Amino acid sequence: MRRILIAVTVVLVWSAPAMAQQQQDPLGWLVSAVLALLLLWTLWLLRKAKTQLQVSVPMRPDSSDDLHDELSGLPNKARLSQIVKRWDKQQRGKKAALLVCKVQHFDRVNQAIGAQNADLLLVQIAQRLQQRLISEAQACLLDKENKVAHLGGIYFALWLDASEKQHGAEQLAHKLEYQLPQSLLIHGCAIDYQLLSGIACYPEHGEQLNELLDKALLVLQHRQFGHSHHLVYQPELTQYDQDKLSLMAELQQAIDSQQLKLHIQPQLSLTDHKVLAGEVLIRWHHPRRGLMGPDQFLPLAEQMGVIYPLTRWVLERAIQLLAQLQQQQLHCQIAVNLSSKDLLQDELVDTVELLLNKYQVPASLLILELKESALVAEPDLALRTLHHLSQLGVELALDDFGTGFSSLAYLRELPIQQVKVDCSFVFDLHRSDTHSAITGAIIDIAKNLQFTVVAEGIEQQEVEQKLLAMGCSRGQGYLYAKPFALDAFVPWMQQWGYSKASY
Ligand code: C2E
Ligand code: CA
Ligand code: CA
Q1: Do the domains at 77-233 and 254-502 have one common CATH topology?
Q2: What is the pTM of this model?
Q3: CA of 483 to the centre of ligand 1 (A)
Q4: Which of 93, 236, 289, 396 has a 20 to 30 Å separation from 318 between CA atoms?
């Protein structure tokens, strides 16, 4: 059928100009060309349908035994464990390698195409791995026809004979990462994916599957966070891990032993330099490591799941400050940064409400800042929390705007009132046409959606003037004040009223 269609198309395309010339009829030529295009389109549709048919056929329809993955039909971890045990018994000491690979950023794929389609994609990736690796001599057969194990979800593994080729596992990992991922079609949409791998060596790094697996996964984790580029496990990685663990254990005590300090940076009206708000920023005075900025410990705290107690502590200090400001008749909002994990905490909304009641502070004085990335992992849950916070009357700001991927339509769905333009666009606004254009566009979009725009990172007066000309009238930056100790905010506010013209 396909061949016939191709033949008809070719004939039509070739004969059309000749026919048109003969008949002096340009309309005829046009009709033939359109017909030919229609046929080509039909061909393309046929091809697509064929690919989709292939997709929905699992490799092993009956994979109900305990040794195969239900989704892909490939040998599972239990089967791989048998293979490793057999190797250890029969080939004792002979070098082997465990290569584990993971499909990166799969949560985003899941979100974009839905869980069912994402499963289809995993089956296709499993098939690709299998097809690609079946001819690899060093990959050991796990059962009669398969060389790849599916450890479940996004994880796959290979058991390699490393007795002959010294860097064979690394070369193969390289191939998998750079040559295998080519877009796959799911219901006509091309989906990109990326593989990331890690290797642990038998018997050097362990003799049992679990030991080797832990180490290969550690390699993956370090590569993913950019801490290391090594494909093969190195003992330093475990050392680094222990360092991290001890840092996080110390963080839990740091609040009690008053090593964590809060700073604050004022946010001003660019037109008359009145102080409108203050953003609370955390620091850690570590007894051995010295002064640590938030970037040195917050990402880790997030990753290790210990961020929420810290946020709760910051929130209480911020709301206490609001109460203090009110007592002094100083009208000003206070902004607190939330981490993405905070939005997934059930108690967050109750905690905010409880603290506002405890210190008798109106909710509208509190601003909570979140980054676009906070909505990526679990958008539904995060959005629900945002709506609850908004119902309390708290103001919400989208931080670092311009660096993420939020579409206009998406922004409209968020219950936010403020958009903060990222420092990186603002610093050199007066010198860079590109940054000037981006900031201008962000300001226009945000204003159209009736959000307040806040520029951060204002260091030069020329930048302030440009922002004002662009229609942004709220900002913060070193031009007015660098972040300083939270306790000094009330006296600073009182003084600023008199000296604001002389910075
Ligand atoms: P952010 O929310 O974007 O905060 C603004 C950062 O820009 C602060 O860095 C501030 O000191 C810096 N900055 C402000 N104006 C200027 C300027 O004119 N020039 C320059 N060069 N920098 C300026 P900082 O304090 O190091 O904070 C870094 C990030 O750490 C913050 O970025 C925020 O995302 C996060 N962070 C800070 N405190 C907390 C916290 O309590 N909780 C959470 N979850 N995140 C926090
Ligand atoms: Ca912020
Ligand atoms: Ca920011």
Answers
A1: no
A2: 0.64
A3: 9
A4: 289
233 and 200 in contact (C-beta within 8 Å)? yes
Q: Which residue has the tokens 């299998």?
A: 130
| pLDDT tens for each residue of 309-366 | 999 999 999 999 999 999 999 999 999 999 989 999 989 999 999 999 999 999 999 9
Mutate to test the pocket of ligand 1, among 337, 345, 418, 430 (most ligand atoms within 8 A of CB): 337
Atom number, ligand 1, closest to the C-alpha of residue 307? 44
Q: Tens digits of per-residue pLDDT, 56-89?
A: 334 454 445 799 999 999 999 999 999 999 999 9
Q: Which CATH architecture has domain 254-502?
A: Alpha-Beta Barrel (3.20)
Residue identifier of the C-alpha nearest atom 19 of ligand 1: 457
Give the tokens for residue 127.
Answer: 């098939």
The bound ligand whose nearest atom lies closest to the alpha carbon of 294 is: 1
**Of 262, 264, 280, 281, which is best to mutate to test ligand 1, by the most ligand atoms within 8 angstroms of its C-beta?**
281
200 close to 98: Cβ distance less than 8 angstroms:
yes
Instruction: Say which DSSP state 422 is in.
Output: P
Ligand 3 centroid, distance to 181 Cα (angstroms): 34
Residue 58, preceding peptide bond in cis (omega within 30° of 0): no
* Model pLDDT for residues 110-167, shown as the tens digit of each residue: 777 888 888 988 999 999 899 888 888 899 999 888 999 999 999 999 999 999 887 9
337 CA from centroid of ligand 1 (Å): 9
Ligand 2 centroid vs 327 CA: distance in angstroms? 26
Q: What is the pLDDT of residue 62?
A: 45
Distance of CA 216 to the CA centre of its chain: 22
CATH superfamily of 77-233: Reverse transcriptase/Diguanylate cyclase domain (3.30.70.270)
